[in-house]
TrEMBL record:
Protein name: GP-PDE domain-containing protein
Keyword Signal included in the entry's annotation: yes
InterPro entries, A to Z: Big_2 (IPR003343), GP_PDE_dom (IPR030395), Invasin/intimin_cell_adhesion (IPR008964), PLC-like_Pdiesterase_TIM-brl (IPR017946)
Origin superkingdom: Bacteria
Pfam families: Big_2, GDPD
Keywords, alphabetical: Signal
Organism in which the protein naturally occurs: Candidatus Galacturonatibacter soehngenii
Amino acid sequence: MYKKITLIIAIIIMSLSMNYLSVEAASTYKTIRLGETEKLTVKTKKKIQWSSSNTNIISVDSKGNITANQIGKATIKAKTKKKTYKFIIRVKDTYSDSTMIHKSKEHKIKMIAHRGMSSLAPENTLEAIELAASYEFEIVEFDISETADGKFIVMHDSSVDRTTNGTGEISELTYEQIKSFHIDGGNGYDKWYKSVKVPSLEEALKVCKKRNLTPLIHIKQVKDTSKLLKVIKKSGFSKQAILCSSNTNILLKIKAINKKTKLMIVASRDAKKVVSFAKKNKLTGINISSKALNLEIANAIKRNKMTLYVWDVYSKKRFDRVVKYGIDGVVSDGILK
């Protein structure tokens, strides 16, 4: 993501509700909420000149106090005669703060990070998963496919072309070949993320375990479902992980191996048929496009005591439309504007 530099961050909580962030290394990373003020400090006795790469997003005064003015990201520089310290700051809006929704007595809706926090970090990467945890999401969704040599990697597309500097179909490439590529595009990608690698399923689940995230694993192209379940079990997620797919054959294969696995079908159309299939095969629930959801479908899902997740929710307006249907979770890139 950045050059590997040892970061030392000291956060001192002051009674006046002002946070302090200190840095000794060349750069560090921080996320704050819209409207918040924090004090940045550098451990040096030299005179410091403070500046912001975008004052519309984050302004900074001569003492290192920053104010989050607008959603986005900016770099704050602290310059001395011999050295420049960088604070890479992102501003998130209060509405997209998951705690305001999933801990609300009124809604009780789980916010699910789509391909990780893909509005701010490269999709389907360890960095995006880590960022989802930082934003207090409970569940993180990511996609998986199987390589030519039977390894599971985290990627949405059937090929590596769109998001990496490599080329080729995942099913025709080995794990080592894919690991030699780096992420250079895709949802959430920007110049701050360099030398990011395609993660394996094991690596993604390790981060989920460390950050107490429930994985919602979207199965794209997988042949060996038995091996997949073994990987998930070895990672300690047999009871917690939720597996979803639009491929009914994959869902039925997994169901035949382990009836207790949490399974959801992904739907973008033919909602009535999808509900019928889920009911017949006793699936955990349905992960449906907001465009295909209506009151009739929502009632059918809830009547059969199935979990209802909704994806394709990228705005507050659309969230407000689907929330009235008694949904259990929203799959979103993280920022609802």
